[in-house]
Amino acid sequence: MNQIDYLRISLIDRCNFRCSYCMPEGEELNYILRQELLTQGELLTLLKEVFIPLGFRKFRLTGGEPLLRPGVVDLIKTIASLPATADLAMTTNGFLLAQMAEELYHAGLRRINISLDSLDPKTFDLIIGNRGKSRWEQTWAGITAAHKVGFDPLKLNVVVIPGFNDGEVLALAALTIERNWHIRFIEFMPIGNHNLFGSCAWIPSEELRQQIRGKWGLIESAVRGNGPADVFKIPGAKGTLGFISQMSECFCDRCNRVRLSADGLLRPCLLNETGEIDLKTSLRSGVSTLELREMVRELLMIKPEINFKQRDAGTVTGVYTRTMSQIGG
Ligand code: SAM
Ligand code: SF4
């Protein structure tokens, strides 16, 4: 059985973007009420007394947009200083990074993934649901600020959406030629915007690799992360290209993670809604941390049975009641 030692922590379900594939416009999202969010104290109690004793060593802060969470810098300081923390990372849309990259780095954050679905401001704004002044420049400024401050490796996440940004695969891949950046192409998953998924579906990673191979060639990279990406490289490039292919090449067998939502639900599999346990309600109703640890231990035991591979990859029509922003992508 895989060692499950990686916890993705959603700090907040709200976001300053409204990406078409994640938070579909027009759909009422029932935001978590402030009093239902795990407090910083509760989160730290769960980390120190439940997850770390069970062997968790790697933590990723996500959301919604994690930089909107009040007190995020202090939280990073505290988690980074825990002796058990081997890896602390964040996934962000980058919009607030130009002003925050430096303090995040000083707080102890060393790894950051920034979502950037397009190099074209118009396409970018269309994808993130922005109708006002373009947000591309500030996002790009956030990426370059993170690079300058020293975040290494700097990873950019791209969800490839047919009809939106699938024509930009080569331009995005080209960013790795002169920069030591990691561009990760993510297959669009049927979670969040079911209408969009139904109308345009997803593109298998192998099709993207063929495009890149045809232009420059592609070699397997010696650099591997601890995540699900298959890592390649354009020959001679400084950076790498990762492909996250949960739809076409199910990687459930090597899954090492669970997810904690901002309101304290622990979810064993992103793409399967069964098995969630409510740690916050238990904690608030006086269940001891020893008992909570037992509940989590039991969930980890059955986690291999709760996965995505039971479904026919690519033909999934199952409806998920929570979006990525609510689960913590
Ligand atoms: N707001 C932050 C961001 O966008 O990076 C963190 C949260 S976001 C939910 C985490 C990641 O999930 C992003 O890289 C986003 O592109 C990805 N994501 C959201 N919905 C998705 C979907 N339906 N399929 C694939 N990836 C998705
Ligand atoms: Fe916000 Fe990230 Fe979802 Fe986009 S993908 S709406 S930035 S949470």
From TrEMBL:
Keywords: 4Fe-4S, GTP-binding, Iron, Iron-sulfur, Lyase, Metal-binding, Molybdenum cofactor biosynthesis, Nucleotide-binding, S-adenosyl-L-methionine. Pathway: Cofactor biosynthesis; molybdopterin biosynthesis. The keyword S-adenosyl-L-methionine applies. Pfam families: Mob_synth_C, Radical_SAM. GO terms for molecular function: 4 iron, 4 sulfur cluster binding; cyclic pyranopterin monophosphate synthase activity; GTP 3',8'-cyclase activity; GTP binding; metal ion binding; S-adenosyl-L-methionine binding. It catalyses: GTP + AH2 + S-adenosyl-L-methionine = (8S)-3',8-cyclo-7,8-dihydroguanosine 5'-triphosphate + 5'-deoxyadenosine + L-methionine + A + H(+). One of its GO terms (biological process) is Mo-molybdopterin cofactor biosynthetic process. It is an enzyme of class 4 (lyase). Binds 2 [4Fe-4S] clusters. Binds 1 [4Fe-4S] cluster coordinated with 3 cysteines and an exchangeable S-adenosyl-L-methionine and 1 [4Fe-4S] cluster coordinated with 3 cysteines and the GTP-derived substrate. S-adenosyl-L-methionine binds at residues 21, 64, 115, 189. GTP binds at residues 8, 60, 91, 155, 257-259. [4Fe-4S] cluster 1 binds at residues 15, 19, 22. InterPro entries: Aldolase_TIM, Elp3/MiaA/NifB-like_rSAM, MoaA, MoaA-like, MoaA_NifB_PqqE_Fe-S-bd_CS, MoaA_twitch, MoCo_biosynth_MoaA/MoaC, rSAM. The keyword Zinc does not apply. [4Fe-4S] cluster 2 binds at residues 252, 255, 269. Belongs to the radical SAM superfamily. MoaA family. HAMAP family: MoaA_B. NCBIfam families: moaA (TIGR02666). This is GTP 3',8-cyclase. The lineage of its organism: Bacteria, Bacillati, Cyanobacteriota, Cyanophyceae, Oscillatoriophycideae.
